[in-house]
Amino acid sequence: LSIFQTVRPIPELLIIGCGRCNQPLNPQVRQFVKSIGMKLETVDSRNAASTYNILNEEGRIVAAALLPYGITS
Question: Record's InterPro entries (predicted)?
């Protein structure tokens, strides 16, 4: 995630795809993302990819980190 300290413009939203099931993120990760000015959304990877594509198509500055959909933990 440290790459977002140097990427400009900073994405308005980071979408994390957690595999097949949504998983809670470490609070330190959430705090780090918030500290650099991004919003964070965690969903299953299929919905994360769809959300990223829609927002990107709208011209919004977004980023995504996706685990393979078959991952369950």
Answer: MTH938-like_sf, NDUFAF3/AAMDC
